[in-house]
């Protein structure tokens, strides 16, 4: 069975000028889709890879295939990390944020600094590690799925293709607006159950 390009969990014009429909046309329709197409070509060419789920392939591959399957998962998880309706952390997630960072604003500033400071392409992320929240980043197609003990709560794409249409070269402006106005904190809270990796998985 081939991997598919998952539908966006919202309309592509739902974010107004935070993220334009044109950005989703390219980012989801072209970039994310290209990773799906290339991963399927690599899997089709090697019977040993067939029948493995996306997450199984991420954990067992390196090089070219790793890049494609990692990016399929990362983008699928990223779409769910965004919300066109403004949300806010509450309950257990808010308690953990306050314990680890002092406040939601302080966490957002830390995520922004991680996103802006990550050299070249990659992903800024909020993860649960050893029971505590941490802000980290992953380079290129690297993904929390490949790191034992990294439980992903939300990720932010900081590849240039994520923001160039709406913000040109201004990664700080993209990170600032998305982190302050368009994060799906309900999704992040749901992922405290440790099942986040499976929420962007696909069967082989
Ligand atoms: Fe991307």
How many strands, which pairing sense, and closed or not: the largest β-sheet? 3 strands, antiparallel
Query: How far is it from the N-terminal to the C-terminal residue, by CA?
Result: 6 Å
Tell me how many strands there are: 3
Shape: globular
Strand order of the largest sheet: 2-1-3
Unreliable stretches: none
Succession of helices and strands: HHHHHEEEHHHH
Secondary structure category:
mainly alpha
Strand content: 5-15%
**Number of helices, counting only DSSP H or I runs of 4 residues or more:** 9
| Helix fraction bin | 40-55%
* Ligand roster: fe (iii) ion
Measured on Cα atoms, how large is the radius of gyration? 16 Å
| Average predicted confidence as pLDDT | 98
Kindly describe this structure:
The chain is mainly alpha-helical and 204 residues long. Helix content is 49%, strand content 11%. It has helices at 21-44, 54-60, 63-81, 91-101, 104-117, 164-167, 171-181, 185-190, 196-199, and strands at 122-129, 132-139, 151-157. The chain has a 3-stranded antiparallel beta sheet. Strand 1 (122-129) and strand 2 form a beta hairpin. Helix 4 (91-101) crosses helix 5 (104-117). The longest helix has 24 residues, at 21-44. The N and C termini lie close together (6 Å). The model has no long low-confidence stretch (mean pLDDT 98). Residues 27, 31, 75, 157, 159, 161-162 line the site of fe (iii) ion.
């Amino acid at each position: 069975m081939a991997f598919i390009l998952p539908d966006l969990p919202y309309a592509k014009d739902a974010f107004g000028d935070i993220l334009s429909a044109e950005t989703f046309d390219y980012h989801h329709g072209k970039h994310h889709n290209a990773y799906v197409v290339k991963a399927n070509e690599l899997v089709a060419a090697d019977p040993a890879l067939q029948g493995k789920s996306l997450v199984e392939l991420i954990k067992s591959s390196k090089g070219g295939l790793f890049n494609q399957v990692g990016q399929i998962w990362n983008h699928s998880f990223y779409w769910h990390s965004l919300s066109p309706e403004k949300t806010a952390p509450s309950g257990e997630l808010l308690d953990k944020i306050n314990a680890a960072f002092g406040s939601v604003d302080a966490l957002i500033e830390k995520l922004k600094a991680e996103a802006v400071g990550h050299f070249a392409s990659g992903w800024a992320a909020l993860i649960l590690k050893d029971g505590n929240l941490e802000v980290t980043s992953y380079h290129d197609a690297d993904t929390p799925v490949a790191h034992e003990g990294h439980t992903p709560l939300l990720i932010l794409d900081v590849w240039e293709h994520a923001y160039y249409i709406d913000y040109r070269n201004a990664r700080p402006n993209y990170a600032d607006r998305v982190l302050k106005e368009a994060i799906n904190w309900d999704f992040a809270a749901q992922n405290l159950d440790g099942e986040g990796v499976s929420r962007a998985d696909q069967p082989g």
